[in-house]
Amino acid sequence: MSDRPEMFEGVDEIWLDGEFVEFEDAQIHVLTHALHYGTGVFEGVRCYGTDQGPAIFRWEDHLDRFYDSGNVYDIDIPFEKQELTEATAELIRREGLDSCYIRPIAFYGYGPLGLNPGKSPVQVALAVWPWGAYLGDEALEEGVDVAVSSWRKYASSQIPTNAKTTGTYVNSVLASQEAKANGYEEAIVLNKEGNVAEGPGENIFLVRDGEIYTTGLAESILDGITRQTAIALAEDMGYVVHDDATISRGELYTADELFFTGTAAEVTPIRSVDDNEIGAGTKGPVTDDIQTAFFELVESGDREEWFRYI
Ligand code: PPE
Questions:
Q1: What pLDDT sits at residue 2?
Q2: How far apart (Å, rounded) are the C-alpha atoms in residues 253 and 110?
């Protein structure tokens, strides 16, 4: 137990290929196709302890994206959506968790090597563990200091950016490592055209003159589910939201507010970019509105269609 990463310390079981197995037994072969070529797809989902009990937030949307990502690579997930839903709920119950992060993954497993996965079997796993604020509790209140990465986001003409593919996350890893090595908490990655794409694991929003902008799907971004949630919440509050924006690097520096969204990152304010203070250098009022609405939503479970009680 003690040599486990802290975040996995209390985890008892993992669901692997249809069975609940002990944490230590959730093993795969070193000749797994996905290990060599990154041929896997995954999801990140959160379960929240709502007033009515633990509920998975926007599970169906994550599940749809999971299967869609798989389709891009002919990863034919050998389980029905309903089976994965029941397995996930059961896993959360077995782990006795109220709120947690959920990581579904499907990948080409152990078979012949060589680029074309051919007849390699598709393996599927589900894991859950408690995961607090992605960039820290203070980040949610005060905001994060970020830097524009020298690494560009791969273009959707090179690798589909709307699929959540394991291999392509090396792009995010590089951006994140660079930001941290330079003393920043997170990166902003520009696309091939040099406009803003997103964070390594987050979508980005900009506020200017009371209106909200977020980069459009053609900017080589992942169509984040938290992004969609933030857009819906903002529109409900009467904000004008431009969800198809092209944002230049320069506009970051002169924004009134900036914030990230993501399943892990939730709604995280950005207080500086490349050492330029954004707005008052702390969480801005519009960001606060969206963040407050987001946390009220996941605590109350108010929009029933977005919550699947376990
Ligand atoms: N862009 C990228 C590149 C990304 O990885 C994420 C999620 C998002 C946008 C936001 O998408 P959504 O979660 O659907 O709102 N990043 C996941 C992985 C984080 C990790 O470090 O691992 C996540 O938040 O679960």
A1: 57
A2: 48
pLDDT, position 3? 85
For the Cβ of 266 lying below 6 angstroms from any atom of ligand 1, the answer is no
Domains of the chain are: 6-129 (3.30.470.10), 137-300 (3.20.10.10)
Active-site residue flag, 164: yes
- Quick one: pLDDT at residue 105? 99
- Flag residues of the chain having pLDDT under 70: 1-2
Cα–Cα distance for residue pair 47/89, rounded to 1 Å:
10
Which tokens hold the place of 239? 């904000």
Count other Cβ atoms within 10 Å, centred on residue 280.
Answer: 12
User: Which of 204, 222, 267, 298 has the most ligand 1 atoms within 8 A of CB, as the residue to mutate?
Assistant: 222
Shortest CA distance to 36 belongs to which of 121, 118, 112?
112
